Amino acid sequence: MNITVTNKLAQRLMEASGEPVSGQQLADEFGISRTSVWKHIKDLQEKGYEITSVKKKGYVLSDIPDSLEASTIQPLLKTQLLGKTIEYIASTESTQIIAHQLAQTGVSHGTAVLAEEQTAGRGRMARKWDSAYGKGIWMSIILRPDIPVQRAPQFTLIAAVAVVRAIEEVTGLRPDIKWPNDILVNGKKCTGILTELQSDADGIQALIIGIGLNANQEADDFSEEVRNIATSLKMETGKHVSRQELVRSILFYLEQYTEIYIKEGFGVLKLMWESYSTTIGKKVRARMARETLEGIAEGITDDGVLQLRTADGKLHGIYSADIEMEK
Ligand code: BT5
């Protein structure tokens, strides 16, 4: 989606950091009339932007709405590519579906799809993902790394580290990662990651990284099925958290780590992942489609495969499973 003049205006006022910008200056910069500037300002005010008009000085932006629209995310975004195009939809079945469609139309690396609500948010194996309106981050990022298909699962791990770093930075909490895709705070799930891909004979065409992060829910906002296992950052910190800051921070770290990965490979990122993991070194039960194995989770391979040693001494490579850990 192209950023409209209204969004660009919001961006300009955000970048002014509370300093007034005159109507004439805005009119000149955007090549529009002052009346037109005023109309765009009114539009923004209706959307929840707090803009006051200071006599003889200009417009001052003092607050922005708690929304995930491009205009609220992009002005302070510190990335080169990720999130430079944001497709925002207030309500959608699943941002994964939109991202898959967009990826097929050839959109660029780093395009992000964001929604306030998903009516059919999904986890792995078609499980449901609770996505209450305005309370979380429901985001799918399209990446186009030049890597072989079997390396795709590494991106689930890389994305997990990026999300953990962002949560640490914005809230000060210290989350853990449960292999492969759960981020826990105090033992409860606050984020899930779903990596899907489009590939052909030439390899990966697009990775679609779905991130579902519970930001500002109260217990009542979760469905009964997940209420006991889920948590939100607000429930853990007691404070409303900025979804906009979190999105910017996730995109920033994901971009940094993708660069490290392309230049140096998975090694350093694997170490980072291990440092946040609660799974490694623990006795775990791995439930898979056909069997359940119990043993010690010894580590992950360079391809992100979990190494599980069972009591008979055999080492098993687990590609995908649900993990239960002993407390
Ligand atoms: C995941 O699957 O954890 C991946 C979730 C990915 C969601 C994002 S949101 C943006 C994008 N668009 C989508 O449609 N999806 C992605 P899995 O490991 O299969 O875990 C699913 C399980 O987590 C469910 O069966 C529930 O038990 C639990 N669950 C559902 N909603 C939850 C929530 N909001 N918070 C915590 N746990 C939840």
Automatic annotation (TrEMBL):
MF terms in GO: ATP binding; biotin--[biotin carboxyl-carrier protein] ligase activity; DNA binding; transferase activity
DNA-binding region(s), residue ranges: 23-42
Residue stretches making up the BPL/LPL catalytic domain: 71-262
PROSITE patterns, alphabetized: BPL_LPL_CATALYTIC
E.C. no: 6.3.4.15
Gene Ontology terms: cellular component: cytoplasm
First-tier enzyme category under EC: ligase
Keywords of the record: ATP-binding, Biotin, DNA-binding, Ligase, Nucleotide-binding, Repressor, Transcription, Transcription regulation
Function recorded in the entry: Acts both as a biotin--[acetyl-CoA-carboxylase] ligase and a repressor.
Recorded family membership: Belongs to the biotin--protein ligase family.
Protein name: Bifunctional ligase/repressor BirA
Taxonomic classification: Bacteria, Bacillati, Bacillota, Bacilli, Bacillales
